[in-house]
Write a structure and sequence with these properties.
Length: 178
């Protein structure tokens, strides 16, 4: 059994100090994610979950763009859903996360933006499959229906699942877009 891999991240480029079981290409994949920008927005019902998710994502080396809301005063979720969806569409962010009380209304707002697909991350499998099969760029959560630990885990599943790029999936996405 190989020892653990030790790397130095203090320079411009990482350096392997001791080669272990982790391959260089696996390290590169993780480091690519460090540059990933995540747009995030919520209404008042999703504020607490959003703030916890932001801290979690930053702790996992994601850059986060917070589109609000910033208080627990009643507000309109479409404003924040559209801001996140437009940031992804305009390539200001790689992916988006939106949160309201059920996840449904804010998801509907995001899905009104041409070319953007948003799904509800109600299970781990749904969070994976919306990326793998539908190439969704935004995931939605219901803060009143989900535990924040589930939201964190499902966000990482979503962000780390590649699109399968299969012919049937591309055909179906094309149909959605039409």
């Amino acid at each position: 059994e190989l020892p653990s891999t030790i790397i130095d991240l203090t320079g411009e480029k990482f350096q392997i100090l001791r080669q272990g079981s982790i391959k260089e290409e696996d390290i590169l994949k993780v480091l690519e994610d460090w540059d990933m920008k995540i747009a995030i927005g919520c209404d008042h019902a999703g504020l607490k979950a959003k703030n916890e998710l932001i801290n979690f994502l930053k702790g996992n080396h994601y850059e986060v763009i917070d589109f609000g809301t910033y208080t627990d005063e009643s507000c309109d979720y479409p404003v924040f859903g559209k801001a996140v969806g437009n940031a992804v569409k305009n390539k200001e962010a790689d992916f988006g996360v939106v949160i309201c009380s059920t996840g449904e209304g804010i998801m509907m707002s995001v899905n009104k933006i041409p070319g953007i697909r948003c799904g509800l991350g109600y299970t781990d499998d749904a969070s994976r499959l919306m990326r793998e099969h539908n190439n969704a760029q935004v995931i939605s959560f219901g803060a009143n229906l989900m535990d924040v630990e589930d939201i964190k885990r499902r966000t990482l599943i979503f962000l780390n699942t590649p699109f399968s790029n299969g012919e049937r999936h591309i055909r179906r996405i094309d149909l959605i877009e039409k």
